Amino acid sequence: MKRILIDTDVILDFFFDRQPFSKDAALLLSLCENKQIEGYITPVIISNTCYLLRRIAKHEKVIEKLKLLVKITSVLDMNSQVVENALHSNFLDFEDALQNFSAQNKGTIDVIITRNVKDYKKSELGVFTPHNYLKLIDA
């Protein structure tokens, strides 16, 4: 399991240093940066992160942080098929459905990493918390 979708909450744990979760988030992103795992995000994750970071930092600083994030991860495509699948799914949260179907659409994502595992119970992909995934790969 080396190709992962990193959900918004994990990215926010890192950027906002949300304890006690930020350590695992930082380790995941470090593994991505060092090419030990392939990390993926979606345009929705970038948009949500930008929106929340702009509340506490200037635009230039936010863009700088997002550029670094995009440099160490890959951005999945979101197309009309992803949106259609999300709209017709049994996911309770539309955003989570978009993330899920973006990952499934890629066809090579192994797992979704999120602290909200229950939100992805309808997913066909494996879903792990950052802590459990890191234990699984023994990082």
Can you give keywords for this protein?
139 residues; alpha/beta; Rossmann fold; five-stranded parallel β-sheet; 12% strand
**Percentage of β-strand residues:** 5-15%
Within the largest sheet, what's the order of strands? 3-2-1-4-5
Strand segment tally: 5
User: What is the helical fraction, as a range of percent?
Assistant: 40-55%
Helical region count? 7
Return the CATH architecture: 3-Layer(aba) Sandwich
Coarse morphology: globular
Give structural notes.
The protein is of the alpha/beta class. It has one domain: Rossmann fold (3-Layer(aba) Sandwich). 53% of the residues lie in helices and 12% in strands. The protein has 7 helices and 5 strands, in the order βααβααβααββα. Strands 3-2-1-4-5 form a 5-stranded parallel sheet, sandwiched between helices. Helix 1 packs across helix 2, helix 1 runs parallel beside helix 3 and helix 5 packs across helix 6. The radius of gyration is 14 Å and the shape is globular. It starts with a strand and ends with a helix.
Quick structural gist:
With 139 residues, the chain is α/β, with parallel strands linked by helices. 53% of the residues lie in helices and 12% in strands.
Element layout with pairings:
Blueprint lengths: L2 E4 L1 H8 L6 H12 L4 E4 L1 H11 L5 H14 L1 E2 L4 H8 L6 H13 L4 E3 L12 E3 L1 H8 L2
Helix pairs in contact: 1-2, 1-3, 5-6
